[in-house]
Amino acid sequence: MPRVLVIEDEGDLAEVLRYNLAAAGFEVAIASRGADGLRLASERIPDLVLLDLMLPDLPGTEVCRSLKADARTRRVPVIMLTARGEEIDRVVGFELGADDYVVKPFSVRELLLRAQAVLRRTAAATASDPVLVEFGALRLDRAAHRAWVDGRELELTALEFRLLTTLLDRRDRVQTRARLLDDVWGITADVTTRTVDTHVKRLREKLGRAGDYIETVRGVGYRLVGAPP
Ligand code: CA
């Protein structure tokens, strides 16, 4: 279920958004102040942020800039909620990094369409990016061979990193132990399929809560879930 964070200080509008987004299948979190929004965003990375431009404590532009400056939330798309007459060009400028905007008063239907379009674009961009991969709580930098879960860097061996990227690249498809041995270890002779089990177990432990993304397919092998839960 995609998670959307609404940062909006108008209580009535926030409630309308909460109701309609939930009805459309989103998990919704609401913050009425910019600082609370930034805290919520870093605690549980949302899939999308709806951000009011005029907040009581911080300008929405400042909140957006902070989201885009933080490695954990940099890739989270932001839709600005603006009032007519505000400087929309500046708001959606590349400098700020917002992905789209809607002008108040907007129809909920229009907002939902924009939200779904932005999420589709983001998913496509992530899938075609071979270097940086984000998958739920998990983030990978293939070039640097680094991995994080919820922003916490993991200490993976080269082999564990390769095992993880192999499963991730073939997510939603079962990988037999023999196939993993071939592709990750590159040998078929001196190691047994038990080796795969041992390494997957250790990798799961290191992944913490993201360890649940790796499913055991009894009698066959392993599969990384198709979408983060
Ligand atoms: Ca406002």
Structure in words:
With 229 residues, this protein is α/β, with parallel strands linked by helices. The chain folds into two domains: 3-127, Rossmann fold, CATH 3.40.50; 129-224, Orthogonal Bundle (Arc Repressor Mutant, subunit A), CATH 1.10.10. Helices cover 41% and strands 22% of the residues. The chain is built from eight helices and twelve strands. The chain has helices spanning 11-23, 34-43, 60-69, 88-91, 108-127, 158-169, 177-185, 193-207, and strands at residues 3-7, 27-31, 48-52, 78-83, 100-104, 132-135, 138-141, 146-149, 152-153, 175-176, 214-217, 221-224. The strands form three sheets. Strands 2-1-3-4-5 form a five-stranded parallel β-sheet, sandwiched between helices. The protein has a four-stranded antiparallel β-sheet with strand order 6-7-8-9, with no helix packed on it. Strand 6 and strand 7 (138-141) form a beta hairpin. Helix 2 runs parallel beside helix 3 (60-69), helix 6 (158-169) crosses helix 7 (177-185) and helix 7 packs across helix 8 (193-207). The radius of gyration is 20 Å and the shape is elongated. The structure holds calcium ion. The site of calcium ion (CA) has 5 residues, from loops.
Oligomer designation? single chain
The unique ligands bound to this protein are: calcium ion
Number of strands: 12
With strands numbered from the N-terminus, the spatial order across the biggest sheet is 2-1-3-4-5
Amino- and carboxy-terminal Cα gap: 7 Å
Largest sheet: 5 strands, parallel
Main CATH class of the largest domain: Alpha Beta
Distinct helical segment count? 8
| Mean pLDDT score | 87
Computed Rg: 20 Å
* CATH architecture classification name of the largest domain: 3-Layer(aba) Sandwich
Structure classification: alpha/beta
Which outline best applies? elongated
List segments where confidence is low: pLDDT < 50 over at least 5 consecutive residues: none
CATH topology of the largest domain: Rossmann fold
* Helix share, percent: 40-55%
CATH H level of the largest domain: which superfamily?
A: Response regulator
Query: Strand-and-helix sequence, N→C?
Result: EHEHEHEHEHEEEEHEHHEE
Number of domains: 2
Beta-strand content bin = 15-25%
